[in-house]
Amino acid sequence: MASKTPVGFIGLGNMGSPMAKNLLRHGYPVIATDVFPESCKELQDEGAQILDSPAEVADKADRIITMLPSSPNVIEVYTGPNGILKKVKKGTLLIDSSTIDPSVSKEMALAAEKMGAVFMDAPVSGGVGAASLAKLTFMVGGVEEEYTAAQELLTCMGANVVYCGQVGTGQAAKICNNMLLAIGMIGTAETMNLGIRLGLDPKLLAQILNMSSGRCWSSDSYNPVPGVMEGVPSGNNYQGGFGTTLMAKDLGLAQHTATNTKTPVPLGSLAHQIYRVMCARGYANKDFSSVFQFLREQEEEPEKKGD
């Protein structure tokens, strides 16, 4: 145990905190920081050393994982006045598990390279539950020679670690997956709602879809209709899971990268706008499968007036 060298961890939010705990469980000393000191308390109680800034973490650890909400946070943590690159040691491995624009990952990799450090993007799929159970999927982009070193740490926090190619390809894989996930969820919600309106029992309709060509992950593993499945957010008033705000953010990234690469994504764009409207209509903190409830509400408004 004592032979394992410390790992820096920056960003102890809903995802970062359980990920850092899994490193501790695997016997890695963790040196951590977060802009919100209260986020650090729990990890400190489990044995992590807490420092004041990313620069201080970089001074003490030569392997650092960052898990931050968005591109501006990543830029600040790496290149800001108290950022990692102010104190980073030559040869340090920097792994960013935030979901951000691939172009920002590439910028950070260049900035790190100038300081003699190695940057890899390793965004995750799986959400808070998978983070706690160390069952995340990591999609990794970066120099292939460094992949094994990254893999050693990532396997402590996830069930699948996939090498995607150069820096930014991890982000690309994540963004593409989530665009399809959103489109599939909206399609499933529309379909279920139409079937229910036509008099079909939702459980029966789901069963038919799942043995037919319309089957998808949203219909068979994460059904958006309350009461159709156990243990999913739709059965718990859309609490937990993957928030609508986060889905809107990821679809914004998909939109931005599509514009930059002149790629037509008509359904991706529409999905982005639907989730944006949902954020403005009080669904921001609900799971993204609440699009079913949103569609029902759209239809039911006139009826309520007549009741």
TrEMBL record:
It is an enzyme of class 1 (oxidoreductase). It is found in: Mitochondrion. Keywords: Branched-chain amino acid catabolism, Mitochondrion, NAD, Oxidoreductase, Transit peptide. Residues 7-165 form the 6-phosphogluconate dehydrogenase NADP-binding domain. This is 3-hydroxyisobutyrate dehydrogenase. GO terms for biological process: L-valine catabolic process. It catalyses: 3-hydroxy-2-methylpropanoate + NAD(+) = 2-methyl-3-oxopropanoate + NADH + H(+). Its EC number is 1.1.1.31.
